[in-house]
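Page 47, continued from p. 46.
Same chain as before, 390 aa.
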Amino acid sequence: MKKIPRIIVIAQTISSYGRGLIRGIARYSRLHGPWSFFSERGEPQDILPLLKNWNPNGAIICTAEEKINKTLIPFDLPTIVIPSKGLVAGYPNIFGDWENDSIIAAEYFLNLGFRNFAYCGFSNLEWSKFRARYFFERLAKEGNEEVFFYDKPFLFLHKDWQNELEELADWLVSLPKPVAVMACNDERGKHVLEACKIAELAVPEQVAVLGVDNDETICELLTQPPLSSIAVNTEKAGYEAAALLDKMMHGQKVPDENIIVQTMQVVSRQSTDILMVDDESVVKAVNFIRLNAKRPLQVEEVANTVGMNRRGLERRFKKSLNRSIHEEIRRVRIELIKKLLLETNMTVSQISNQLDFNEIPHLTRFFSRETGMSPNEFRKQHLGKIQKTS
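Result:
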């Protein structure tokens, strides 16, 4: 009888983050296994002692403890940790690319023309504090030294939910408007939107809100208006974690090796659907560029659309957005290419045809010049083997 590896998986399946990791783990098992899984609900301290007689070969567990009791996990059991507070020493950890998440959030709000910024997180979660720090640092590089923070501890909020919402609403009212708020995750973004309702603040006209994780249940069903969010590639991270665990189970030493959940892109929804520019000509030009991003645009064509000469519109772009018309055209085209690479199975050839490039090498040179990598390299880095790359 074939001996099948027995794997304990304890993850937060209530969230898309945990479900994405499990999808990646399961995909690795289908391709390189099979593995036998124990993946019931519960806390590690409750489950692990009961499974000693099951003789597991490996474990991937989510825990809020920054130190794991060594009596819980046998010293010789290959284990990978999904920390929900701070990193756990002595084990490979799966955690987010917090710096890149925050850089993308800051640049997204800057590109929308915002001048006031805030961050809403949890003061007792290390990953939330890291995202806050990186958000501030990226904005400071653009001269935005004042970023407002709301960082109460993560608690069982239902115990004091009304007071929490009212306090959050008071904080939102106190902020200069319009303001762009990065939430540490989608759950916190939902809290901000609920507080906006209490405070009677218009979203996104007065408060624009961006979450992290792109949990579609939260972003599209449980929030009104729908919540914009930064998508992260948990499935790829789960696959890589399973591959690492497989090495560990075969006796390979993997000291100090962690799995990073890669940032993908902003998924824009109604909570940030606004351009904070007072100049109507610039707004009209930007909307024209967005609507026609599937074809090459000339600066003169954009200027003619708004009934201005090129030089005059260039001055207004620089004043309102701190970039030229040509830079905006390139930026919007690059974002569209990224979206098609990450969200569809279209080949580079198909994308080239759809976006009216003369030939594939033209698209590749354009994309590589702007991003530092080819379209296939970009797709592979973010999606691994999830989608085809040719």
